[in-house]
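Summarise this fold before class:
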Amino acid sequence: MAVPLLDLVAQYRKIREEVRAAVDAVLDSQVCIGGPKVAECEKAVAAYSDAKFGIGASSGTDALLNALMSAGVGRNDEVITTTFTFFATAGCIARLGARPVFVDIDPKTYNIDAKMVARRVSRKTKAIIPVHLFGQMADMEPIMEVARQRRLAIVEDAAQAVGATQKGKKAGSVGTCGCFSFFPSKNLGGAGDGGMIVTSDATLAEMCTVMRNHGSKPKYHHKYVGGNFRLDPIQAAVITVKLKYLEEWHEARRANAAYYDARFGGSKKIVTPYVEPHNRMIYNQYVIRIPADRGGSRDQVEAHLNAKKIGNAIYYPVPLHLQQCFAELAYKEGDLPHAEQAAREVLALPIYPELTEAQRDEVATAVLEAVGG
Protein backbone atom coordinates (compact mmCIF):
# COMPACT_ATOMS: atom_id res chain seq x y z
CA MET A 1 0.00 0.00 0.00
CA ALA A 2 1.45 3.35 -1.04
CA VAL A 3 1.11 6.02 1.67
CA PRO A 4 1.80 9.69 0.90
CA LEU A 5 3.66 11.90 3.34
CA LEU A 6 0.66 14.25 3.18
CA ASP A 7 -2.76 13.91 1.57
CA LEU A 8 -4.36 17.32 1.12
CA VAL A 9 -6.96 15.92 -1.26
CA ALA A 10 -8.44 13.84 1.56
CA GLN A 11 -8.71 16.93 3.74
CA TYR A 12 -10.22 19.08 0.98
CA ARG A 13 -12.80 16.44 0.10
CA LYS A 14 -14.40 16.82 3.55
CA ILE A 15 -14.63 20.63 3.53
CA ARG A 16 -14.91 21.29 -0.19
CA GLU A 17 -18.33 22.93 -0.15
CA GLU A 18 -17.45 25.30 2.69
CA VAL A 19 -14.17 26.31 1.08
CA ARG A 20 -15.73 26.83 -2.33
CA ALA A 21 -18.52 28.96 -0.87
CA ALA A 22 -16.01 31.12 1.02
CA VAL A 23 -13.82 31.59 -2.06
CA ASP A 24 -16.84 32.33 -4.27
CA ALA A 25 -17.94 35.02 -1.81
CA VAL A 26 -14.57 36.76 -2.26
CA LEU A 27 -14.74 36.48 -6.04
CA ASP A 28 -18.34 37.70 -6.13
CA SER A 29 -17.38 40.73 -4.05
CA GLN A 30 -14.26 41.41 -6.15
CA VAL A 31 -12.56 42.74 -3.01
CA CYS A 32 -9.30 41.03 -3.87
CA ILE A 33 -6.88 43.06 -1.72
CA GLY A 34 -7.56 43.59 1.98
CA GLY A 35 -11.21 43.90 2.95
CA PRO A 36 -13.49 42.14 5.44
CA LYS A 37 -12.29 38.57 4.80
CA VAL A 38 -8.71 39.46 5.73
CA ALA A 39 -9.89 41.35 8.82
CA GLU A 40 -12.05 38.40 9.86
CA CYS A 41 -9.17 35.97 9.47
CA GLU A 42 -6.77 38.21 11.38
CA LYS A 43 -9.21 38.56 14.27
CA ALA A 44 -9.93 34.81 14.40
CA VAL A 45 -6.28 33.67 14.31
CA ALA A 46 -5.25 36.29 16.88
CA ALA A 47 -8.05 35.21 19.23
CA TYR A 48 -7.14 31.54 18.76
CA SER A 49 -3.54 32.41 19.64
CA ASP A 50 -4.44 34.49 22.72
CA ALA A 51 -3.09 37.65 21.10
CA LYS A 52 -4.76 41.03 20.67
CA PHE A 53 -3.77 41.71 17.07
CA GLY A 54 -3.30 39.73 13.88
CA ILE A 55 -1.51 41.14 10.83
CA GLY A 56 -1.93 38.98 7.73
CA ALA A 57 1.13 38.31 5.57
CA SER A 58 1.81 37.00 2.07
CA SER A 59 3.77 34.05 3.50
CA GLY A 60 5.34 32.81 6.70
CA THR A 61 8.66 34.12 5.39
CA ASP A 62 7.22 37.60 4.86
CA ALA A 63 5.67 37.49 8.32
CA LEU A 64 9.16 36.96 9.76
CA LEU A 65 10.66 39.60 7.51
CA ASN A 66 8.00 42.16 8.41
CA ALA A 67 8.28 41.39 12.13
CA LEU A 68 12.05 41.88 12.10
CA MET A 69 11.81 45.09 10.07
CA SER A 70 9.11 46.44 12.36
CA ALA A 71 11.22 45.57 15.42
CA GLY A 72 14.02 47.69 13.99
CA VAL A 73 16.45 44.96 12.95
CA GLY A 74 18.84 46.22 10.32
CA ARG A 75 22.38 46.32 8.98
CA ASN A 76 25.12 45.15 11.35
CA ASP A 77 22.66 43.96 14.00
CA GLU A 78 22.81 40.40 15.30
CA VAL A 79 19.86 38.04 15.71
CA ILE A 80 20.24 34.83 17.69
CA THR A 81 18.43 31.76 16.38
CA THR A 82 18.68 28.01 15.95
CA THR A 83 20.71 26.36 13.23
CA PHE A 84 18.18 23.52 12.86
CA THR A 85 15.19 25.05 11.08
CA PHE A 86 13.76 25.96 7.70
CA PHE A 87 15.95 28.40 5.78
CA ALA A 88 13.55 31.34 6.03
CA THR A 89 14.34 31.82 9.72
CA ALA A 90 17.91 32.90 8.99
CA GLY A 91 17.32 34.07 5.43
CA CYS A 92 15.13 36.92 6.68
CA ILE A 93 17.86 38.04 9.08
CA ALA A 94 20.46 38.08 6.32
CA ARG A 95 18.17 39.94 3.90
CA LEU A 96 18.10 42.87 6.32
CA GLY A 97 21.88 43.05 6.44
CA ALA A 98 21.92 41.61 9.95
CA ARG A 99 24.02 38.65 11.09
CA PRO A 100 22.42 35.35 12.11
CA VAL A 101 24.06 33.99 15.25
CA PHE A 102 23.41 30.27 15.34
CA VAL A 103 22.87 28.22 18.49
CA ASP A 104 22.85 24.42 18.85
CA ILE A 105 19.76 22.42 19.72
CA ASP A 106 18.45 20.40 22.61
CA PRO A 107 19.06 16.88 21.25
CA LYS A 108 15.78 15.60 22.70
CA THR A 109 13.33 18.19 21.34
CA TYR A 110 15.41 19.53 18.39
CA ASN A 111 14.47 23.04 19.52
CA ILE A 112 17.02 25.74 20.30
CA ASP A 113 19.07 25.07 23.43
CA ALA A 114 17.66 27.89 25.53
CA LYS A 115 20.52 27.70 28.05
CA MET A 116 23.01 28.62 25.34
CA VAL A 117 21.20 31.74 24.17
CA ALA A 118 22.53 34.01 26.92
CA ARG A 119 26.11 33.08 26.00
CA ARG A 120 25.67 34.36 22.47
CA VAL A 121 24.27 37.79 23.33
CA SER A 122 26.55 40.68 22.40
CA ARG A 123 26.26 44.46 22.25
CA LYS A 124 25.07 44.02 18.65
CA THR A 125 22.22 41.65 19.50
CA LYS A 126 18.85 43.14 18.55
CA ALA A 127 16.50 40.16 18.64
CA ILE A 128 16.11 36.44 19.28
CA ILE A 129 14.12 34.07 17.08
CA PRO A 130 13.20 30.88 18.92
CA VAL A 131 11.69 28.34 16.51
CA HIS A 132 8.90 26.03 17.69
CA LEU A 133 10.01 23.08 15.57
CA PHE A 134 7.79 20.24 14.38
CA GLY A 135 4.85 21.54 16.47
CA GLN A 136 6.47 21.81 19.91
CA MET A 137 7.31 25.12 21.58
CA ALA A 138 10.90 25.95 22.47
CA ASP A 139 11.80 26.50 26.13
CA MET A 140 10.64 30.11 26.38
CA GLU A 141 11.24 31.11 30.03
CA PRO A 142 15.07 31.32 29.86
CA ILE A 143 14.86 33.11 26.52
CA MET A 144 12.35 35.63 27.84
CA GLU A 145 14.55 36.29 30.87
CA VAL A 146 17.49 37.13 28.60
CA ALA A 147 15.23 39.38 26.53
CA ARG A 148 14.00 41.25 29.60
CA GLN A 149 17.51 41.80 30.92
CA ARG A 150 18.90 42.99 27.60
CA ARG A 151 15.75 44.62 26.19
CA LEU A 152 15.68 42.41 23.11
CA ALA A 153 12.77 41.65 20.78
CA ILE A 154 11.55 38.06 20.73
CA VAL A 155 10.10 36.98 17.39
CA GLU A 156 8.62 33.51 17.78
CA ASP A 157 8.92 31.49 14.58
CA ALA A 158 5.73 29.52 15.11
CA ALA A 159 5.35 28.51 11.45
CA GLN A 160 4.94 24.86 12.46
CA ALA A 161 3.20 25.41 15.77
CA VAL A 162 -0.14 27.20 15.50
CA GLY A 163 -2.12 25.96 18.51
CA ALA A 164 0.84 24.47 20.38
CA THR A 165 1.06 25.46 24.05
CA GLN A 166 3.61 25.69 26.85
CA LYS A 167 2.33 25.85 30.42
CA GLY A 168 -1.01 26.91 28.98
CA LYS A 169 0.40 29.73 26.84
CA LYS A 170 -0.16 29.59 23.09
CA ALA A 171 2.61 29.69 20.53
CA GLY A 172 3.01 33.24 19.29
CA SER A 173 1.66 34.85 22.47
CA VAL A 174 4.77 34.65 24.67
CA GLY A 175 7.33 36.82 22.89
CA THR A 176 7.11 40.27 21.37
CA CYS A 177 5.25 38.69 18.48
CA GLY A 178 4.75 35.35 16.77
CA CYS A 179 4.83 34.42 13.08
CA PHE A 180 2.72 31.72 11.44
CA SER A 181 2.90 30.11 8.03
CA PHE A 182 -0.17 28.98 6.12
CA PHE A 183 1.82 27.00 3.56
CA PRO A 184 -0.46 24.14 2.44
CA SER A 185 1.48 21.46 4.33
CA LYS A 186 1.01 23.18 7.69
CA ASN A 187 -1.63 22.05 10.21
CA LEU A 188 -3.50 25.22 9.26
CA GLY A 189 -2.70 25.47 5.55
CA GLY A 190 -4.10 27.66 2.82
CA ALA A 191 -4.51 27.12 -0.90
CA GLY A 192 -1.12 28.68 -1.53
CA ASP A 193 1.25 30.97 0.32
CA GLY A 194 0.11 32.95 3.34
CA GLY A 195 1.13 33.84 6.87
CA MET A 196 0.37 36.01 9.87
CA ILE A 197 1.99 37.97 12.67
CA VAL A 198 0.23 37.93 16.04
CA THR A 199 1.06 40.27 18.92
CA SER A 200 -0.45 42.06 21.89
CA ASP A 201 1.84 45.05 21.39
CA ALA A 202 -0.30 47.79 19.80
CA THR A 203 2.70 49.81 18.65
CA LEU A 204 4.33 46.86 16.94
CA ALA A 205 1.01 45.82 15.37
CA GLU A 206 0.62 49.28 13.87
CA MET A 207 4.17 49.23 12.51
CA CYS A 208 3.66 45.77 10.96
CA THR A 209 0.45 46.99 9.33
CA VAL A 210 2.23 50.00 7.82
CA MET A 211 5.28 48.01 6.72
CA ARG A 212 3.22 45.42 4.84
CA ASN A 213 1.98 48.22 2.57
CA HIS A 214 5.37 49.54 1.48
CA GLY A 215 5.68 51.61 4.66
CA SER A 216 2.85 53.83 3.48
CA LYS A 217 0.52 55.79 5.78
CA PRO A 218 -1.43 57.65 4.58
CA LYS A 219 -1.50 56.20 1.09
CA TYR A 220 1.41 57.34 -1.11
CA HIS A 221 3.19 58.92 1.86
CA HIS A 222 6.19 56.82 2.95
CA LYS A 223 7.96 57.36 6.24
CA TYR A 224 9.49 53.87 6.00
CA VAL A 225 10.65 51.51 3.26
CA GLY A 226 8.41 48.51 3.76
CA GLY A 227 7.28 45.78 1.38
CA ASN A 228 4.28 44.15 -0.23
CA PHE A 229 3.53 41.65 2.51
CA ARG A 230 -0.27 41.45 2.29
CA LEU A 231 -2.41 38.35 2.85
CA ASP A 232 -4.80 37.73 -0.07
CA PRO A 233 -8.54 37.62 0.77
CA ILE A 234 -8.92 34.25 -0.96
CA GLN A 235 -6.26 32.75 1.31
CA ALA A 236 -7.86 34.45 4.31
CA ALA A 237 -11.23 32.91 3.41
CA VAL A 238 -9.74 29.41 3.18
CA ILE A 239 -7.86 29.79 6.46
CA THR A 240 -10.96 31.04 8.28
CA VAL A 241 -12.90 27.95 7.18
CA LYS A 242 -10.12 25.58 8.18
CA LEU A 243 -9.56 27.21 11.55
CA LYS A 244 -12.89 25.77 12.73
CA TYR A 245 -11.50 22.26 12.25
CA LEU A 246 -7.99 22.85 13.54
CA GLU A 247 -8.44 21.43 17.05
CA GLU A 248 -10.06 18.31 15.62
CA TRP A 249 -7.13 17.89 13.23
CA HIS A 250 -4.61 18.46 16.02
CA GLU A 251 -6.16 15.67 18.05
CA ALA A 252 -6.15 13.30 15.08
CA ARG A 253 -2.45 13.99 14.59
CA ARG A 254 -1.82 13.40 18.29
CA ALA A 255 -3.69 10.09 18.09
CA ASN A 256 -1.59 9.02 15.12
CA ALA A 257 1.55 9.98 17.03
CA ALA A 258 0.44 7.91 20.03
CA TYR A 259 -0.06 4.92 17.73
CA TYR A 260 3.45 5.26 16.30
CA ASP A 261 4.91 5.75 19.78
CA ALA A 262 3.34 2.48 20.87
CA ARG A 263 4.47 0.56 17.79
CA PHE A 264 8.05 1.81 17.98
CA GLY A 265 8.36 1.74 21.75
CA GLY A 266 10.04 -1.67 21.86
CA SER A 267 12.74 -0.89 19.31
CA LYS A 268 16.18 0.19 20.49
CA LYS A 269 16.98 1.55 17.03
CA ILE A 270 14.12 4.06 16.87
CA VAL A 271 13.86 7.19 18.99
CA THR A 272 10.33 8.59 19.00
CA PRO A 273 9.57 12.31 19.46
CA TYR A 274 10.18 13.61 22.96
CA VAL A 275 7.54 16.01 24.27
CA GLU A 276 8.22 18.10 27.37
CA PRO A 277 5.55 17.41 30.05
CA HIS A 278 4.46 21.06 30.11
CA ASN A 279 4.10 21.23 26.32
CA ARG A 280 1.17 20.40 24.09
CA MET A 281 2.60 19.31 20.76
CA ILE A 282 0.53 19.53 17.60
CA TYR A 283 2.76 17.32 15.39
CA ASN A 284 3.22 19.37 12.26
CA GLN A 285 5.74 16.60 11.65
CA TYR A 286 6.27 13.25 13.35
CA VAL A 287 10.04 12.89 13.35
CA ILE A 288 11.79 9.71 14.43
CA ARG A 289 15.51 9.32 14.91
CA ILE A 290 17.65 6.36 13.86
CA PRO A 291 20.81 6.69 15.99
CA ALA A 292 23.97 5.48 14.31
CA ASP A 293 25.50 4.59 17.68
CA ARG A 294 22.75 2.00 18.16
CA GLY A 295 23.56 0.28 14.90
CA GLY A 296 20.85 2.02 12.89
CA SER A 297 20.96 3.80 9.55
CA ARG A 298 18.54 6.60 8.72
CA ASP A 299 19.43 6.37 5.05
CA GLN A 300 18.66 2.65 5.04
CA VAL A 301 15.23 3.28 6.55
CA GLU A 302 14.61 6.07 4.05
CA ALA A 303 15.53 3.80 1.14
CA HIS A 304 13.25 1.01 2.41
CA LEU A 305 10.29 3.38 2.73
CA ASN A 306 10.93 4.82 -0.71
CA ALA A 307 10.97 1.33 -2.19
CA LYS A 308 7.58 0.65 -0.62
CA LYS A 309 6.24 4.04 -1.82
CA ILE A 310 5.75 5.30 1.72
CA GLY A 311 6.16 9.05 2.05
CA ASN A 312 8.94 10.41 4.23
CA ALA A 313 11.15 13.48 4.43
CA ILE A 314 14.30 14.73 6.10
CA TYR A 315 13.84 17.92 8.11
CA TYR A 316 16.65 19.09 7.77
CA PRO A 317 19.60 17.51 5.95
CA VAL A 318 22.02 20.45 6.35
CA PRO A 319 22.00 22.73 9.41
CA LEU A 320 22.01 26.41 8.53
CA HIS A 321 25.48 27.13 9.93
CA LEU A 322 26.90 24.76 7.29
CA GLN A 323 24.93 26.16 4.33
CA GLN A 324 27.13 27.54 1.56
CA CYS A 325 25.41 30.95 1.57
CA PHE A 326 26.53 31.48 5.19
CA ALA A 327 30.17 30.49 4.62
CA GLU A 328 31.32 34.01 5.42
CA LEU A 329 30.08 33.52 9.00
CA ALA A 330 33.00 31.07 9.38
CA TYR A 331 31.19 28.23 11.11
CA LYS A 332 32.69 24.82 10.55
CA GLU A 333 31.60 21.22 10.95
CA GLY A 334 31.66 20.26 14.60
CA ASP A 335 30.73 23.72 15.90
CA LEU A 336 27.10 22.77 16.64
CA PRO A 337 27.32 18.99 17.05
CA HIS A 338 23.80 18.16 18.23
CA ALA A 339 22.21 19.74 15.17
CA GLU A 340 24.74 18.11 12.87
CA GLN A 341 24.03 14.69 14.34
CA ALA A 342 20.27 15.21 14.11
CA ALA A 343 20.63 16.11 10.43
CA ARG A 344 22.17 12.68 9.86
CA GLU A 345 19.58 10.72 11.85
CA VAL A 346 16.08 12.24 11.64
CA LEU A 347 13.24 11.12 9.39
CA ALA A 348 9.64 12.39 9.22
CA LEU A 349 6.74 9.97 8.70
CA PRO A 350 3.13 10.53 7.57
CA ILE A 351 1.08 12.03 10.41
CA TYR A 352 -1.77 13.88 8.69
CA PRO A 353 -5.25 13.65 10.30
CA GLU A 354 -6.87 11.65 7.50
CA LEU A 355 -4.36 8.80 7.80
CA THR A 356 -6.30 5.53 8.06
CA GLU A 357 -5.56 2.72 10.48
CA ALA A 358 -4.41 0.55 7.59
CA GLN A 359 -2.06 3.27 6.37
CA ARG A 360 -0.62 3.79 9.85
CA ASP A 361 0.01 0.07 10.15
CA GLU A 362 1.70 0.02 6.76
CA VAL A 363 4.04 2.85 7.76
CA ALA A 364 4.91 1.43 11.17
CA THR A 365 5.46 -2.09 9.84
CA ALA A 366 7.77 -0.82 7.10
CA VAL A 367 9.87 1.20 9.54
CA LEU A 368 10.21 -1.77 11.86
CA GLU A 369 11.18 -3.99 8.93
CA ALA A 370 13.87 -1.51 7.96
CA VAL A 371 15.52 -1.54 11.39
CA GLY A 372 15.18 -5.30 11.84
CA GLY A 373 12.06 -5.49 14.00
